[in-house]
Amino acid sequence: MNQLPTPNRGQAAQSPLTLVQWLVCIIAAIGFAFDTYVLLMNPLVLRPALSELLQVPQTSDAVIRWTGYVMWGSALCGGIFGMLGGYLTDLLGRRRVLTWSILLYAVSSAAAAFVTSAKMLLFWRCMTFIGVCVEFVAAVAWLSALFPQPRRREAVLGYTQAFASTGGLLVSLVFKASYKLADSGQIPAWLTLPHGAAGWRYALISGLIPAIPLIIIRPFLPESPEWREKKLAGKLQRPRIGELFQTTFRRTTIVTTILFACAFGAAFGAIQLTPQMVPGLIAGQVASANKKLATVEKGSHQFDDLTTRVAYLKTNPQQIIGNVQLIQEIGGLMGRIVLAWLALRIVSRQRLLRLFLVPGLLIIPLVYAFPAAGGLGESSLDVLKVGMFLTGFFTVAQFSFFGNYLPRMYPTRIRGTGESFSANVGGRMIGTGANFLTTQLAVALPLMMHNPDFPRPTALAYAAAGVVLLVYAVGVVTSFWLPEPKSEALPE
User: Fold this and answer.
1) Alpha-carbon gap, residue 341 to 364, rounded angstroms
2) pLDDT tens sequence across 58-75
3) What pTM value is reported for the model?
4) Is residue 487 classed exposed, middle or buried when 0-12, 13-18 and 19+ CB atoms within 10 A define those classes?
5) Domains, the chain, ordered by start
6) Which is more confident, 260 or 291?
């Protein structure tokens, strides 16, 4: 199984997949899913984790600041080392880099469950991001070479990347289950953690579980055939980052780096901070319900319903946050699936990308400026759920777009390096800075308004609305300079 013959480029596109190719698709889909699984722990676990580690309330400025440090710091480390990973992918091979990067992100995710300080949490989340950033670039380069037929490659890359959103769905469910386990008071002895039974710790340690079958199986999968042949023949040139800025590739490199930064800016500057906005909406609904209780006759049906609702809102905040996250991930999954379907039917890559950018520019800033900020009163939380579905749909699909687009723009010798530069420098080193910008704006906004008591979740939502409007506007304008691939075949 370690060897896979070089596919015949003239082979009919509709020929059945071989057993090895099916296994490759299945393992790739699992890999993409659990890459997302361990990354999306951040927006769910950081607020309760930092509150416990810093010993401050979850809505405090300290938690908001440290959220920015952890999210941007880990993404920045991931981007720096992801660049090295792209270079190593071209130099050492796709399969070897894949295996070690999976091991790194699995172990580091579990290690974060045992931290006793915010600095330790930052360190281990940095290690997790490094592993995932390296793994993603290697996986895309690997799949592109194993399926050189244009339509099949588009379908394989599109639909396997769609499984990345199932990782988001799964982490939302595991997060909710972790808090149910922690709150039950019936934890088995073998599941007892040394630093306390906090739901966020159980959620983090679960990051080790899905990586086990991947570590076992992936070393037995085939190496990229064209990379292997060039390596054996001594024709594989050493990848050089400088080549990305030569005349042939300069425009592709610059434009995709900016577009990646915009996509990550929306994800990190708004989406991943949404769980910190939901508590403000919960508090608003509790206050509204309590106000109604004062005017309702005790013992009436309405009084009982309101009392039950208040009790649920107060005792299940993490469950409600998990529900909002789950809906956003469903939207992201649908966006990836629609992107994969459209990629086979729309020739122009510019047009395909703008089908997601333009509606996102019109809709997503409004989601954060109104329902996320509590501007719609009692209906804010319900409207936010619909808004988060659309936010996930238009934003997450863009990540699948780049996975399909970039392999067609770079030749074998620098394919991993080219993909890595755009994703890591543009996305993870620049784009994730939107998270730091949003959190700092949220802290500064009450001071600018001369209102130190202004609700922090509301300030965070307003800051996110401004940041997401900026990055989507830049993305729409930049998309007009996106180069179209010269052919459906991969460059040699």
Assistant:
1) 23
2) 878 888 888 878 887 887
3) 0.74
4) exposed
5) 19-213+229-481 (1.20.1250.20)
6) 260
